[in-house]
Each structure stands twice: as structure tokens, then as C-alpha cells.
Amino acid sequence: EELDAPQAVRDELYAVVTGQRTVLFRKELGLACVEARVAPSHAIHRAVSLRALERFVHEHDLEETNTSDVVAMLLDKHRGDIGTHFCELFDEAEVGTAHVFVSHAWGAPLGHLVACARSFCRRNLNFLRKGAVGRHTRTLGQYWEPAILTADDAFIWLDIFAIAQLGGAATAHDLNQLQGVVAGSLFTVVALAPDALERGPLTRTWCAYELGQTIDADRSGYAEKLQPEVIERSGAGWALSSAPIVRGLLDLDLSNARATFDEDRVAVAAKVDALSVNYFDWTQQEVKWSEGFIGVNAAVRARLERHAQHVESGLDGEGNPMPAGGAV
What was the pLDDT predicted at 220? Predict the structure, then answer.
């Protein structure tokens, strides 16, 4: 009753605090989540369909080009041609509200990020469909969410297309909306490679923040919103890494993560340290709770272990057979 917020936000928070959809869910994070869904200008609405991303990578031959070079190329080629965000390069129907948020490091090839998103979406299509229907129902009248018919219809949130890349106030404004993007997306896919302990999301402070916010926003209490994808090159394509390789990443320690600017590292690390998270430990089969980096590390390890179990069994999260040879 004390919240100065739109009725849609009040209704959502009432459902949250009455315990219908979560055990632990902070009010301020609920506000960020709901406002992200209902504000048309919010960064969460700058996701690009998987179909359009794959076409973009193919047409521009960007399979092996790292994201830093992709941004440099786009700035050089399109500066002045479009507005603030590179998602404007796509048709209007190819841009929408994020189903999948991709956490990644800029040194990775764009093709790898898209392969991770494709792998997750194809193996979890029913989860995506159910989540999109539930999200649309809860925000009915605020925006229209198109149905997910195939994995290609899923909207993938990548910062290089959704966040202003020219720096300054526009970039700062978009970064301030990151919590709402993570909270409002259905899943966070962590784009990992076999060398993820040397480079990649597990070594970057901003990614540690994204993973922490994902776990904090998970309404199930099982950290199922967080989905690691460990993908490697296989011939001319991409394939899931083996279970031993996935388990080799369990030595992660996100508290050692780095940032380009030390002031960013200190500020972002403080936000992760302030989190209290609960997660399901798949090895001990129980829900646990912890704080800060200790909790986030444990939750990420638990999800990696679950991913390794899927790879080992040959069955995905929905109990369906994985592709032969792990191809994605």
C-alpha cells in the first residue's frame, strides 16, 4: 500500500509476497522486473530473434569474429546511419522482449554466443513456450508478446545490440536497466567454452553481477533461471562439451573476476557481495542458502553440475534425447 507504483506493479508484487510464485523475492527486484516488462522503452525490449541473429552472423561472416571487433565494425560502418542501438539494424518484427539473456565475455566469437543460445533454445523449447505464455498472462494489457513456435522465434538479449555502444549518458542509462533486463528475462544463458576459467564470463566482474542477479531473481529457489552452456568447436560447427570438461569448470571463483576499469570491479563486486541467494545443490539434493560470492559461486557450480548430468545422460532438461554427438 505504501508503494508509489503503477497498479500493474502493485498486482505483481502482491502475487509475489503472498507466496504464490516464490519463497524469497525482494520487493525492489520485483519492481525492476515488472517495470522492465511494462515500459516500452526499457532495454529488455531490444532483444533480437535467434533467426535474425543467425542470419546476421552468416551474411556478415562473423562466426569467428569476437564481439569487440563486431562492435568496432558496426560503429565504423553504421555510425550516423541508425539511432543509438544496433538492434535497429534488424526489422521491427525481429526485435522484441527478451526471452533469453546471454551472459558472455567480449573476447568470445559472436558465432559461439549464438550457438550457445541456439543450443539452449532448441533443447528447452517447451520451457520457453510456457514461460512466455505465463509472462504475457501476468502483464496482459501492457504489451503483446508473440508466441514462440520454434526455437528461432525466441528473442535473445545481447548487450552489443541492446546497449548503446558510443559511451556517455546513453550507455550509462542502459547499464542502469541491466538488473531489470536480467529479472524480466525468462532465462540467463552463460556462454562458456572449455577454457572458461582462463577467459570468458567466469573471469569478468560484470558477468559475476549478471549471474548473481539471475540467481537472486529466480522465483523457483532452484536457480533454474541460470543455464550454463559449454560449447566448443566441432568441425565446421559447434557441439556441447563433454561432462568431464564441464566439471573441470567447477573450480571457478567469481570473486577473482576482473574488469577493464578497477573502479568498476570494486563497485560491481560490492553489489554481488550484498546478495543473499538460495540454490539447489544437485549433489546433496537439498536447497541451500548463502551470501555474496560464496553463494553465487556455489549456485553456479550447482548449475554446471546439473548441465554435466544432462550431457552425461544424453537427455536434456525436458527428458528428451540430446542431439547425436552433442551437435548444436
Answer: 60
Task: Write the pLDDT tens digit of every residue in 122-168.
Answer: 888 888 887 766 555 444 344 445 667 789 999 999 999 999 988 78
3-state secondary structure of 25: coil
Is 158:178 a contact under the CB 8 Å cutoff? no
Cβ pair 203, 255 in contact under 8 A = no
Rounded CA-CA distance 143/309 in Å is 38
Residue with cell 541460470: 226
User: Minimal CA–CA distance to 102: which of 219, 12, 273, 231?
Assistant: 231
Contacts of 267 (CB under 8 A, 6+ apart): none
Taking only the tens place, the pLDDT of each residue in 65-99 is 999 999 999 988 887 766 789 999 999 999 998 99
Least Cα distance to 228 among 245, 203, 246 occurs for 246
* pLDDT tens readout for residues 214-235: 988 875 666 688 999 999 998 8
Q: How many CA atoms lie within 13 A of 168 on its CB side?
A: 4
Q: DSSP characters for 1-67?
A: ----S-HHHHHHHHHHHTTSS-SS--HHHHHHHHHHHH-TTSGGG-EEEHHHHHHHHHHTT-TT-BH
Find the farthest-apart pair of alpha carbons in the chain and give their distance in angstroms, rounded.
59
pTM, full prediction: 0.85
Rounded Cα–Cα distance for residues 306 and 144 (Å): 34
Residues whose CB is less than 8 angstroms from the CB of residue 324 and which lie 6 or more positions away in sequence, other chains included? none
pLDDT tens digits, one per residue of 158-208: 999 999 988 788 888 998 899 889 988 989 999 999 999 998 999 999 999
| DSSP class of 43 | G
**CB burial class (10 A; 0-12, 13-18, 19+) of residue 167?**
exposed
Distance CA 97, CA 95 (A): 7
Sequence-ordered list of residues with C-beta below 8 angstroms from that of 178, at least 6 positions apart, any chain? 43, 209, 210, 213
For 115, the grid coordinates are: 550457438
- Strand 237-240, strand 155-157: pairing: unpaired
pLDDT at 8 over 90: no
